[in-house]
Amino acid sequence: MIKRLLAFFFMTIVMVSCSEDFQPKPKGYFRIEPLKKNERKFDVPPLPLTFSFPDYFKIKWKDVNQFNLTSPYYSTTIHCTYMPVQKGNFEENLTESIKLTLGHIKRAAGMDEKIIEDFEKKKYGIRYKILGEVASPIQFVVTDSFNHIFRASLYYDLTPNVDSLRPIYNEVEKDVEQILSTLEWRDPS
User: Fold this and answer.
1) Distance CA 16, CA 3 (A)
2) What angle do CA 86, 188, 55 make, to 5 degrees?
3) 3-class DSSP state of 7
4) Which of 76, 83, 120, 166 is buried most, with the most CB atoms less than 10 Å from its CB?
């Protein structure tokens, strides 16, 4: 009797559990459509620099020389810092900027550096692409070598995952390159 009861119980479980076609679904990510880009000009005195950036970034000021360009749609923030060169602080400020970038190497899979030399615009510096699952994959520091240093770093406002963030990264990388290519010092030095 116990054997029949167990067999009945087992058959009931098998029949109930087989009533649906179950297939595990792969982990997926939201589809991210690129936004339409309308150019906007950054020209805010007293900062002696100008550049163009997409209008889906909003400016949030931290203080007179620091601001963020934030994009809620892409969940990204570009932290920007202008450092005026004063007596004896050029090398110190430049070294500090590079140290901040190199601090991300611990988690990086690699790094790509691009030297920036634009003699016409008096713009010199380095753009870093930090590869792998890092919080800040693109950073740059530019200077006119005499009066100005401008530093920017891109941060995601979410956990970095290279595969899922690739569409965002590709779009925002273009935006950072736009900032770099259009950046000019307002006062000739």
Assistant:
1) 20
2) 95
3) helix
4) 76
> Which structure tokens are listed for 124?
């010199």
With tokens 């800040």, the residue in question is 136
Greatest Cα pair distance, the chain, in angstroms, is: 99
Tokens of 58: 């909003």
- Which one-letter amino acid corresponds to residue 41? K
Q: Find all residues with CB under 8 Å of 7, minimum gap 6, and list them.
A: none
- Residue 163, helix vs strand vs coil: helix
Residue 78 and residue 153 in contact, taking contact as beta carbons nearer than 8 Å: yes
Beta strand 66-71 with 110-118: parallel, antiparallel or unpaired? unpaired
Identify the H or E element spanning 13: helix 2-17
Cβ atoms of 59 and 41 within 8 Å: the answer is: no
Burial of 100 (0-12, 13-18, 19+ CB in 10 A): middle
pTM for this one?
Answer: 0.79
Residue 170 CA to residue 166 CA, distance in Å, equals: 6
Q: What does the pLDDT look like over 89-129, one tens digit per residue?
A: 877 777 787 777 777 677 778 889 999 999 999 999 999 99
- Rg of the chain over all Cα atoms, to the nearest angstrom: 25
C-alpha 83/C-alpha 94 separation (Å) is 9
